Amino acid sequence: MDKLRRVLNGQEDEEQGLTSQVLDGTSLSFGTRLKWFAICFVSGILCSILGTALLWINVKLFAVFYTLGNLAALASTCFLMGPVKQLKRMFEPTRLIATIVVILCLILTLCAALWGRGPEGRERSKSSREA
Fold first, then answer.
1. Is residue 36 exposed (0-12), middle (13-18) or buried (19+ Cβ within 10 Å)?
2. I need a labelling partner for 30 at 20 to 30 A (CA). Which of 55, 93, 110, 124 fits?
3. pLDDT on residue 22
4. DSSP 57
């Protein structure tokens, strides 16, 4: 509110850089950060549980919901510490291997389920060879 008053009164500092303006414009209160963390984290857990339940019904839906759940859970921590700080910490030398493995597993899960040949694909190819 204070920033809005300064802008409306013409007292805004013109020397403020683009980065500072973006950070000022996107800063959230701690309560808002906590609420969005909880929303993202709970939706991530629910998507992961739904994906796990769909594993026996449809492998493609499992991969999509499980990956969305993991991404939502990862995004939830961005609300607590901020996205830039989150990415810096994820790519620290001590966490680099773990970060690469997690990202690679999420990508490979989607690729295997969406473009791989599952059990139904193998059955179709057997029946087409027999005919």
1. middle
2. 93
3. 47
4. T
CA 104 – CA 57 distance, rounded (Å): 25
CA distance from start to end of the chain = 74
37 within 8 A of 77, measured Cβ to Cβ:
yes
Burial bucket for residue 51 (CB in 10 Å: 0-12, 13-18, 19+): buried
Q: Tens digits of per-residue pLDDT, 90-99?
A: 999 999 999 9
Residues 6+ apart with CB under 8 A from 58: none
Residue 117: strand, helix, or coil: coil
DSSP conformation class of 116: S
- Considering only 25-34, 74-83, 114-123, which range has the smallest mean pLDDT? 114-123
Average pLDDT over residues 117-123: 56
Which of 89, 68, 71, 78 has the alpha carbon at shortest distance from 33? 78
Dihedral sign for Cα atoms in the order 47, 48, 51, 52: negative
Average pLDDT over residues 10-37: 65
